[in-house]
Batch of 3 targets.
Target 1
Amino acid sequence: MQLKPIEQSFSVAYAYKLHFTQDLFAVKNSLLKDILDGYKKDKRVKLLFVIDDGVSTSHQDLLNEITKYCKAHSKNIEYTESIVIKGGEQCKNDYSSVERVLKGINDQHIDRHSFVVGIGGGALIDMVGYAAAIAHRGVKLIRIPTTVLSQNDSAVGVKNSFNIFEKKNFLGTFAPPYAIINDSDFLLTLEQRDWISGIAEAIKVALIKDANFFEYIESNAEKLKDRLLEPMQYVIYKCAEMHMHHIAQGGDPFESGSSRPLDFGHWAAHKLEQMSGYTLRHGEAVAKGIALDVTYAHLMGLISETMLRRILQVMQNIGFDLQMPVSTESEMTALLVGIQEFQEHLGGELCITLITRIGVKHDVHEIDMDSMKKAVNTLNKIC
């Protein structure tokens, strides 16, 4: 008996919102309560909070504010507990962080109609999202990012991840959050390097998608460096909007193909982070990665020297150190291994995004290793 294949196809629509606010856990701020009420009208929703220890240290009343808020809105919110975890990239390297979140989900009986609320920088948001996605095959997640980079980039997408085998984001899921809430008050306590770090992701999307946005960053570089909130809020909003638009309209939200323009500058960035023992912030590494790839683009005749120096100058005006920490042949070899690892992470053929002018991306499928080595040395001479 010849049996025919059974074929089935289906589509699932995803929708989530990025909200902007200040003083999120003030009792009079109804945003979080309203978001939960929109999920279950006039019913209590169980919440488990996972908080970056750096955030709780900088905002010492935060845990108390959360419990007060939940108590004041107990008609909508059933508070369980707040788990404080050491943030930074190390929480993505230590699986005990994932296990602590999973234990909280299990102990507090968090199910698919409950929420995990992650509050912290991009690394903690990634890790918490990964844990939430694998528990019960997915419990609902609300992200509250607290750094520039997480508010404009890492927390606004659909990816969650964990590092293993000395490779960044080797484990991961595509699981959109239920909502993201950007509270600008969290930015005010950032260290300077964390304040500017996330601007690298804005420069990234501007260079590949929007020359006008790059010009805005260029003309406001000193204001951004000096921590003026208004231009930073615009940069965060515009960058997040462009990231979310790409996810929705780019045709490949779950990255089935090999072209990933939002990873411009990231092949080197990921490797530099690993080589530094994750002492480099992600945004700092992205800035170096972008600088390297635009230098390579110049050497390959894609952009002029004038354009190269203009881009590098903008990043230096903001405060980025663009020196590549590569001084020996073994370090150069280790860095260039990142190209192969990036291809493995992409799957399929190698696809590296470069630019032909500001605002216009250009994908290449081969890298001339001698020219890339020259790009490293050229960049270090310029900067």
Target 2
Amino acid sequence: MKKKSLQVALALAVVVGVFAWKQVRKPAADAEPPSQGRYVIPAGADAFTFGTLAFKACELPQKRSAATTAAFCAPFEVPEDWDKPDGRRIALNLALVRSAEAPDDDFVVLLAGGPGQAAIESWPQVAGALGPATKRRHVLLLDQRGTGESHPLACDTDLDADALPEFDLDHVREQTRACLDKVSANADPAQYTTTVAVRDLEALRQALGGPRYDLVGISYGTRVAQQYLKRHPDGVRTIVLDSPVPNELALGGEHARNLEDALKAQFARCTTDAACTAAFGDPYLKLQKLRDGLRAAPRDVRYPDPVDFTSTTRRLDAWGLAGLVRIFAYSPETAALIPLAIEQALAGNDAPLMGQIKILQDGMGELAGSGMQLSVMCAEDADRVERDPAAEDFLLGNLLVDVVKAQCEIWPRGVRPADFNEPATGDVPVLVLSGEFDPVTPPRYGEAVVKHLTRARHIVAKGQGHAILGRGCIPRLMSRFMDERDPAALDTSCVDTLGATPHLIDYNGAAP
């Protein structure tokens, strides 16, 4: 059997999420008048110039779809090494989605997650959620260097491996060397860090003529937003941080513990519900039993592919289980399936669990082959992550720490500024969003971010998971926040109507 051991391991470390409504505009809290006129696109125009950038009409493709998004694209080049402006230059993929009405002079900027996701590829997932906020604001989509079509550090190495009953770090090192050999042919991987990407973002602002940004960061994108704020506070009008990563955090070091905490909190809901308890007992103990069984004896599973229904056979081991359960835990709808999937797997039916592996592959495959992800983590996190003895009995164990350490023994390390891990500060209006059961960036991360900002508000959505900007009334709140720039004045009571999805007792649904 073939197993994507490196792909699964890397996918365990990352993810983004996604997903709107009508809004009455009011003057900003500090009486900032709306400014109009600098960035109006004439009706029917298929070309225009903003600053020094010449935009032309284009269509943005959507992955696994024939649909496209109407936009305007412009060529945008930057030095690969900003300290060597006469050296190699790289083309960054830039698109502008126009506002529905006459625009104000600020731009919404989407900062995608990962590390490794591209803004243009992510846009269809978040367009609905940002619809109200972008009614009178153009959207800038800049694929971060190393992602999408911005000089991508794509490895495309063969991540399959035969006869690997357990995860093999030697195989990880082998694949990392192969990836490095490929991308080094036309790129310097040390130049693809968050810090360098922030310089690109500021260069774009200057090329446009100096507008201010409304930054919307999701997951890893929140790191980019905070680093930009530290370097260029005058370029920021507002910030939305969805599922934030504090500057102090080393990515990968707490993933195992965060997943464990989220699963325990989710499963506690089951053990206090009579119907769920009758059906599954204690799902946490059942999950441990399944994991221990797969550690002792991985098994080949034959199941129908949920996309094309072809019969597929794959190896399921403890690491694969960890990856699948982690993906399930990202959203309340799929988290509600976990106890049922575990129960079925213990009874010998792995199809409900394995059927979701398509999500793991399609959503994370490009990240597993992303050298940009390694450039970020090796420069910014690897030397600060440590094995946690207490995590050995967690579902993820210390796998992620071991993987990062092994890869960064090989991958070039870029420069991390001395103040990189210091928190972002200042009085820029900031709205922070967290999901109660987020298995990656729990609410305590949001609390850590807001305590250093003088005009910040933290909203925790009950029952929700990772990346929540599209949930319930949050799109409307984001729009009001960008209009008024007063997070303290937001009426967030509508968020209280959100909650966890009841656990499915069987395939007919939850208990009545």
Target 3
Amino acid sequence: MKNLRTSVESYRHDTEDAEADTKHELAGLVGRLRIDGTLVLPESATVDSRGRSKELVECDFYHELTLFAESPILHITTGFENEAQDHRLRILFPSNTGAKTSSADSMFDVIERPATPEDGEDWKQPAASTCPLRSFVSVSSNERGLTIATKGLLEFELLEQRGGTLALTLLRSVGWLSRITMKSRPEAAGPILEIPGAQCLGSHKFDYAIIPHSGRWLENESYLESDKYLNQMIGTFVPKGDDDSATLSKGFLSIKPSTIRLSAFKISEDTESVVLRLWNIAEKSESCSITLGFPVSAVEMARLDETVDDTQSLRLKNETEIEIDVPSRRIVTILLKPR
């Protein structure tokens, strides 16, 4: 295996020209591919933080790609042995969609952002090109799309190269809490304290998934595939009992349509009611049907603090079925009183 050719004059290094060892296996309904390689990087920034050191370090990495039969989700685990300081590690996903905007979920919303943000009037610092996500980010055209789901990786950037490329941040190594030499702001963001532990040296493992699809994320419902990735099914073998009629499982909640997302299903903080909190991911109002796996004697609309809200209404069809209209991007909280 050969190391990646690098130039210490360049601030950017990638694995595009690197030679790597690959091996694959197919076991029943699961296929796996492993890629091992080494990324050669400058050891650190220069003392004045305006360049990179001429000393190089080798950072071993691997990718494990797993694909299950009949699943559109490509599971990826990346391992990285970080020996370098003062750098950002990202993985790039060219989409060839021509996308000029990205859509990423946040708390109770999915936000569309341009690839090149515009500065506001009289801003003291330029608008950041990186953006936050909660669990997925998507780019698309009318014909094709690409959604990336992540476990704890919360920063991305949409680059215009190669038809719209999603750059997912895996690692950000820094040695100071704040600096005054940054191009991104004219002043320090906080105390100028050295924090060597934030260089994140050592072994790291990252989990994320690629979900290609046709059309746009909302119409294709790629957010449901993201849910499947983040909340995977767990199989358990149960020994045969004496009674074949025994019930081994029971559903407690069903929500339709899929654009109505579940946020909370819990016991109330102050009462004995069950709290059901939903929000509408769609761009239009949705008529929501809720089916419960237990009977209720009463239901009430509530605010986020779980106090009763008489200004909103819902319909209790029977002791297990509820109907409610949920406006676009709206959060609704329902108090259920089990019978």
